[in-house]
Amino acid sequence: MPATSSPTTADATFDVEAFRADFPALQQDIYEDTPLVYLDNAATSQKPTAVIDRLDQFYRQENSNVHRGVHRLSQEATDEYESARRSLTRFLNAEREEEVIFTRGTTEGLNLVASTFGEMTVDEGDEILLTEMEHHSNIVPWQMLAERAGAEIRVLPVNDRGELQMDRLGEFLTDDTALVAVTHVSNTLGTINPIEELIDAAHAMDVPVVVDGAQSAPHLPVDVQALDADFFAFSGHKMFGPTGIGVLYGKHEHLEAMPPYQGGGDMIDQVSFDGTTYDDPPHKFEAGTPNIADVIGLGTAAEYILDLDWDAVEAHEDNVLEYATEQVEAIDGIRLIGTAETKTSVLSFVFDDIHPYDAGTFLDRLGIAVRTGHHCTQPLVKRFGLEGTIRASFAAYNTREDVDRLVDGIQKVKTMLG
Questions:
Q1: DSSP 135-162
Q2: Is 365 helix (H, G, I), strand (E, B) or coil?
Q3: What are all long-range contacts of 52-59, with beta carbons under 8 Å and residues at least 24 apart?
Q4: What's the whole-number mean pLDDT along residues 360-373?
């Protein structure tokens, strides 16, 4: 959730302990009698019992293929699969269910757009506008497209705080721009980008916008109609859902015009050796047997999030992030990387004289799970003159006590390795 205020005490309306009790993985000890402090949520979140139980129920009682069978199990599996699509439609506030495509995750969603819509949209001599804070999955597919099309990649830079240099947007968004691809929230810095401003500026020039929503979907209410993004991709495993499943939202007019991404069963209308016609969206983009159980599990995760009091969760996440920022910033020999005015969920930092990998390994032995390295954002990390950072990333189940454990661990790292 975005940091917008500076509360000094935990928000009383959110019962974080009751919330934590929903997540079995958080109850375990690491390395004998050391309770786990899980601060790697930007990589993947833990799963609530509701999602775990739903997967178990499907495989025990409902397992069958979808969209093909007339028998009861197939019909029930199909109903649950499409019910999950309705849940994700509501989660995104999409205009219609046909705009929700199930993918393996954000990466596949972005590749799907680059390989279909991108091929239709980007021509020789065109420019594709990215930003300096993009994840590799929102860089490499566009580089591959640019190479095929003879187009050029342009990159909107960030400032020293890790914010987009929006005052320079006019230099990069030009008459040659054919497409913009931008992250909603930086997975390395936690910066919340002014996505509405970017989309409005691009659309004023009739340029479509693809949004990487992998880090925003778990922390911000997403309304694709209000955003007016042409495409929005995210992953289930970062928002309390299963791994290997995600969603690509696309405006219906785009999806109707796009060619299929893959060929096979379930994406066809009629097949003959003389030629094939394709099904309508979304099935046109869901070739073969889908990841049925995890789609249903993702639907459960979406409903789980929709049932939360967003204002209370937002206040709690703000509080934990601000407390962590204050506490870690006060430690001698620590430098924060990414100090944007509007942030969520992520605290990246480096020691003056200790390698991130060494520090992360030591913290692990204290039961504290953080991420170290370049976080699949090598251009961004290099922009700050680094090879990697230590990233503590928070979810709604994290607490000030987790932060205190992290701070104590950092002090021990300094004592032992500094």
A1: -GGGTHHHHHHHHHHT-EEEEE-B-TTS
A2: helix
A3: 52/24, 54/296, 54/297, 54/300, 55/242, 55/293, 55/294, 55/296, 55/297, 58/292, 58/293, 58/296, 58/297, 59/293
A4: 97
- Whether the predicted pLDDT of 4 surpasses 80: no
Helix/strand/coil percentages in the chain, nearest 5: 40, 20, 40
Distance CA 363, CA 368 (A): 5
What pLDDT score does 13 carry? 83
Q: Is the pLDDT of residue 9 over 60?
A: no
Q: How far apart are CA 403 and CA 321, in angstroms?
A: 9
The catalytic position among 133, 185, 324, 376 is: 376
Mind listing the domains of the chain with CATH numbers? 16-45+309-417 (3.90.1150.10), 52-306 (3.40.640.10)
Phi, psi angles (nearest 5°) of residue 124: -60, 130
pLDDT for residue 41 = 98
pTM above 0.85, yes or no: yes
Active site residue 376: yes
Angstrom distance (rounded) from CA 300 to CA 54:
7
End-to-end CA distance of the chain: 33
Average pLDDT over residues 332-344: 97
Distances (CA, A) of 115 to 145, 181, 203, 407: 7, 14, 21, 45
DSSP 279: P
- Residue 418: pLDDT band (50, 70, 90) is confident
